[in-house]
């Protein structure tokens, strides 16, 4: 009887020790994950700065993001050079670069390819699978640090998801979208977002769904704004 009681006590102690050791392991694992994970970007925060080699007008230059303060910036990531969806996006941005320039907005593309691969791609004519001339910088994120800072680096593939970040004149993140690899972005929507953000900066109003320049805006007054807006749409 005494022996049985002692064995039960031992089993209970072992069970408790296992429970606490298991808890300690889970806690340590969680702590390590949190400690070494990349911080999540939040709207309203300063965009992570970086300096990297970029292809600019067929020349290699060091590009530092913070030197663009005073301008809006569209910073977009794409998976890789010499691919399929990516060239359609890069060419579409380039073809409409004047519309961004009018808004004092710069466009910067980033991938994990080297600057030499960027150069080879733009030197290859479009009819032969290349890009031809691209009228904005292409950054080479070879060490993947930029993609990791912005939370778009895909460890398994070694390249980046289609992340797009709109940064205002103060260097503050104002818009974040991340597409899966197979889905290209709408240049019309990127232009619209920059226009809307700049309009709210100047006029202190808010822009409703599908807003475009010339459309009605709203004042942030919950008592009147919605009724007034929908009455004008009727």
From TrEMBL:
Pfam families: 1-cysPrx_C, AhpC-TSA. One of its GO terms (biological process) is cellular response to stress. CDD domains: PRX_Typ2cys. Keywords: Antioxidant, Disulfide bond, Oxidoreductase, Peroxidase, Redox-active center. Residues 41-199 form the Thioredoxin domain. It is an enzyme of class 1 (oxidoreductase). It comes from the Eukaryota. This is thioredoxin-dependent peroxiredoxin. The lineage of its organism: Eukaryota, Metazoa, Ecdysozoa, Tardigrada, Eutardigrada. The gene is RvY_05375.
């Amino acid at each position: 009887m005494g022996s049985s009681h002692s064995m039960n006590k031992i089993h209970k102690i072992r069970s408790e020790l296992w429970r606490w050791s298991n808890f300690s392991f889970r806690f340590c694992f969680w702590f390590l994950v949190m400690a070494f994970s990349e911080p999540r970007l939040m709207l309203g925060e300063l965009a992570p700065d970086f300096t990297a080699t970029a292809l600019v007008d067929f020349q290699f230059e060091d590009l530092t993001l913070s030197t663009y303060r005073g301008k809006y910036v569209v910073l977009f990531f794409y998976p890789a050079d010499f691919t399929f969806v990516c060239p359609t996006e890069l060419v579409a941005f380039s073809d409409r670069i004047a519309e961004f320039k009018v808004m004092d907005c710069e466009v910067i593309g980033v991938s994990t390819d080297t600057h030499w691969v960027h150069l080879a791609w733009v030197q290859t004519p479009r009819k032969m699978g290349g890009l031809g001339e691209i009228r904005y910088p292409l950054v080479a994120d070879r060490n993947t640090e930029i993609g990791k800072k912005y939370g778009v680096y895909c460890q398994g593939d070694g390249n980046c998801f289609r992340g797009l970040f709109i940064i205002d004149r103060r260097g503050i993140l104002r818009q974040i979208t991340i597409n899966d690899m197979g889905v290209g972005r709408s240049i019309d929507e990127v232009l619209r977002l920059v226009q809307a953000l700049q309009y709210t900066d100047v006029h202190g109003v808010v822009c409703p769904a599908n807003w475009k320049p010339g459309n009605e805006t709203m004042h942030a007054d919950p008592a009147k704004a919605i009724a007034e807006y929908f009455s004008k749409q009727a």
